[in-house]
Structures are given as C-alpha cells and as structure tokens.
Design a protein that fits this description.
Order of helices and strands: HHHHHHHHHEEEEEEE
Helix content: 40-55%
Strand order of the largest sheet: 6-5-4-1-7
Radius of gyration: 22 Å
Distance between the termini: 22 Å
CATH superfamily of one domain: Tetratricopeptide repeat domain
Shape: globular
Number of strands: 7
Number of helices: 9
Oligomer: single chain
Strand content: 5-15%
C-alpha cells in the first residue's frame, strides 16, 4: 500500500541553543536545488504500482540520501523492501517512520507483520507503569506538532520578556510577566519532551540487525566458546557500550551480549 527575567531569558536562550542539533535530525527537509523530492517519490510510487520494487527502492533511497525524511517516505520504503523479501531494511524503515509518528496505525500494523516473519521470537519484558506513562507522554504528539509547540512557546516567552523590559506601564509589565512565565513553562516542558524524544536526554539508541545471523558473545571477542546465543535479521536491539569493533546489545527480553559493530543499522 502506498501513501502520498534576565535569568529566565538566559534559560530560554540556553535551551533553544540545546535544541539546535535536534532540529537538524529528523526534522531536516532541505534538499539540494537539483533534487525534486516529490517527483522522485511519485516516480517511486508508480514503479511500486508497476511491480518494479527495486526501482521504487532506488527512487525512495535517492530522496532519503538527499536529506529528506518523512513518515510516508519510510512507510513506502518499508513496503517496497518487504516486497523484495528484505526484512531487515523493511523493519528498519517502519521503525524510522514510527520514530517520527509513533501512533501511525498502518505503519505499526505493517511492522508487526514484518516482525512476525523474522527468525527470532522475542517476548519483551513487562514495563514498569511509570515508564509506560513517560513513553506515552513523549510520543503523544507527532514530531512536527512537538517542534511547532516548542517554537511557539519560545516566541511567546521571548515576546513576554521584551514587553516586560521595554514597557513602562504596570499593566503591560504584568502581561509581559505572565506571557514570559507561560511561555517558559511550556517551552521547558515540551522542550525537554522533544529532547527525550530525540534521545538527547534519557533516551536509548536502538538498531536493527541487518545480517542473516550473528553470534552474540559474552565478551567483545569472536572466540566460539564465548557465544551465548544467536540473533537474526530484523531483530530490534538496544545499543549499549561500544568499542571500535564491538557493540554491546540488549534484546527486548533482557538478554545481553556483544556483536561486531557494523552488523546493525541505527533506527
């Protein structure tokens, strides 16, 4: 399926600066002038409809490599990879779509279908209810709406600060104060939510196994007697400690071990 105060002011400024790297990740949409993303996506959609799934993948990947990321792009890319039997990249694409819009029902359904076909049957550990509530809050708003809320709150707080500093009327000063407080509160609340959403604070980095099978070792070594178990293509893992050649992974059922760096892709 295809889908087309001075201290307060300093706090606001510091938090805004902290958000700059975030705004350049999943929210990045700028492309070189010579790239027409909509034309490429439409071409990919047509190729998909015609049954040329490899051609569709090439068109979608050209858009992605140019710097564009979006739910529909990853959704369509996941479907195309699924049609070619590439479960690892299909699951990776669906997971990337959900990282932008966690509540998308079509993406979630297709992800569950793809995961049901993987070799590993992993039962996730039950989550403490507090973590479930936090996760619900962090993923409540789509990324675009969350970014817009943060920007508007910052502008509201900055406008209130300007009124408070420049106004000579007591009434205007009180209004500026309330705007400053309201904007600061909303900015800090949703700004921290955005940082958590992007994994900047308190977040975990996840990846998808891209090779058919890989032994998971008890230590960063390829000695056969250190093998604990094996994981397969499409398995979702949390990335923990790393060396230049090895990465410690944690499965959703709590199993821990080391795999060679490079056999997974970060979501």
């Amino acid at each position: 399926m295809i889908r087309a105060s001075a201290r307060t002011g300093l706090v606001l400024l510091a938090t805004a600066l902290a958000l700059v790297p975030v705004l350049g990740t999943k929210a990045q949409v700028e492309l070189p002038v010579e790239i027409d993303p909509q034309a490429l996506i439409q071409n990919g959609n047509q190729l998909y409809q015609d049954g040329d799934f490899q051609g569709a993948i090439a068109a979608y990947e050209e858009v992605r490599e140019a710097g564009y990321e979006g739910v529909d792009l990853y959704y369509n890319l996941g479907n195309a990879y699924f049609k070619t039997g590439n479960l690892g990249r299909s699951i990776l694409s669906f997971e990337r779509a959900l990282s932008i819009r966690p509540g998308d029902p079509d993406t979630r359904a297709n992800l569950e279908l793809a995961r049901s076909l993987t070799a590993d049957e992993i039962e996730p550990l039950p989550r403490f209810w507090v973590l479930s509530v936090i996760s619900w809050w962090v993923n409540l708003l789509p990324l675009g709406a969350l970014l817009l809320t943060v920007i508007l709150a910052y502008l509201l707080g900055a406008g209130g600060l300007s009124v408070r500093i420049l106004s000579r009327q007591p009434g205007s000063t009180r209004i500026g104060t309330w705007l400053l407080l309201a904007g600061s509160a909303v900015f800090l609340l949703f700004g921290s939510t955005l940082l958590a959403r992007e994994g900047v604070i308190g977040g975990s980095e996840w990846g998808i196994i891209m090779v058919e099978e890989v032994p998971v070792q008890s230590a960063p070594s390829d000695e056969d007697n250190l093998t604990l178990f094996r994981v397969h293509e499409g398995t979702k893992v949390r990335l923990d400690q790393r060396t230049e050649e090895w990465t410690e992974i944690v499965l959703e059922d709590g199993k821990v071990g080391w795999v060679p760096t490079g056999i997974f892709e970060i979501i």
